[in-house]
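Provenance

Sequences were taken from public entries as deposited. Structures were produced by running a predictor on each sequence independently, with no templates supplied. The record for PiggyBac transposable element-derived protein domain-containing protein from Cymbomonas tetramitiformis is shown for reference.
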Amino acid sequence: MFISPEFRHEVLENNTNMNAAAKGAGGEHYPKWTPATPAEIDKFIGLLMRNGLAPVPDIRLNWTNPRDDFVYGDERVHGIFARGVHRYKELKAFFHVASPIVEPPKNKPFFKVQNIVDHLVENSKLNWLPGRHLSKDEIDIGVQGRCALKDKIKYKDEGDGFLADCIADHGYMFTCHFRHDPCPTVETNASPLHNRCLYLAEQVSTDWNTIWFDNLFTSKKFLQWLYSRKKLGCGVCRASGRGLPACVVQDVVTRKAELEATVGTIKVARSFDFTTLAFSIYDSKPVHLMSTHHSAIKVIPKTRKVWDAKESRCNDLAYTRLNAIDDYNHHMNGVDICDQLRNQYRMDGAWNRERKWWFPIFKWAVETACSNAFKCYKKIGEREQSTELHSHRSFLSLIAQRLCGADQALALREFNRRKSMSSVGSCGSASVPKQSEPTVRAPRLTPNTVTKWVSRFIGKHPMKEVVKDTHCQVCKYQSKFGSVDTQVTGAKRKDPDGEGNDEEDCDSKVTHASFGCQTCGIWFCGVKCWNAWHGL
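Predicted structure for PiggyBac transposable element-derived protein domain-containing protein:
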């Protein structure tokens, strides 16, 4: 829904195959490479998601023999690709999100992943109606390695990485914008930081939403700019340089005697146009806020559970809190919930080292798409009052299972196992085979069918995996009739012994097939036979 099948099967597949062709795949570099299929792209993404649910230091360890490696070997992964871990290495080497033949524009530093980020943001805005309360905060995509776009970040646990501004609705990522991406000038006198915030706020389709943010964004001018765009705002504010009235500023008190008399002091001021409200309260230290959402400041009673050691139980403890601070605590954490859902089952587990600097952003996009899909799933389930809803873990597990095609792989393995066991009875005697449906065989290659199929090669011919041990039909044809090109030139195959054409007269070897063509129904051993058959 958020990364559509059309995007995965057309954009990712085509760009991966073009990147492989540009790097000479199929020759000396990965000689057994075959063009990636839509199913393989889904399986590749599904394996990354599976690594978030069951993390390993290296995904390739899943293909180790369970008898030799008790910890990492997993037979369920062995049948996902026809060539096992070798196919995964090829896809990992040539996987590409952007087009490798287009020169990256200078004004788009994140060109290699810009298409999937734009696709995610577009679908996120399309599938969610913004609520009354939204939160604005920055997100950090951690990355290790050298990259000129990486920021030095010491105030987040994620560490150094890429920063992006984000607007979220209680854990649903609605829209985002990376710091290094150029942003259109929304307000002439605004700073680049506030221009990005106003640009994101204008993408919210509904009016008079309240956006909650921290002291990095809060200022009097910024609140006025939001109000002119029919958006309300509230956030913690710094004491100086942000337009906070001097009458509400409270200084830090260090003496204990003065501290007891200062704690609980509240100061409030309103602007002349009655739109902005500034206030402060002295708790353990002074806290200053500015808001266009609140019309009055009130002290409201609250209760919370506190453990009582004497009675050995939790009792209710009464306390007071400002209504604005209580609203801020409940609505500010939308982006944090989004990060929490994403980090709970990260694709890289505890290891985020990638040689490709853009690959962490691709993983972030897939993880955010899954988190948004889970929020939609929960919201629909609550509306329909469903009692049997999947947890976050089981929801991601189902997506990974469907992408990897684990159901088909397990069913095929079970079918082959039962078929091999049915040939021998319970006492060792041969059993009577059951009648099965006739097998639909691939068309037999003859000189007439070659001319027929080559002339009809128009459009896209998708690839398919080999499900059983079979031979390359092009090599088999060449061993009988010679090259496929002889049908075009009219040349005849030589017959040295004069006893008719047979396989002994040809030096071509019949090799095992590695993949096939869904349109033609022909099996191929490699790229050369694929190109020879399709006339490429």
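The chain is about 35% helix and 15% strand.
The CA atoms of residues 248 and 476 lie 88 Å apart.
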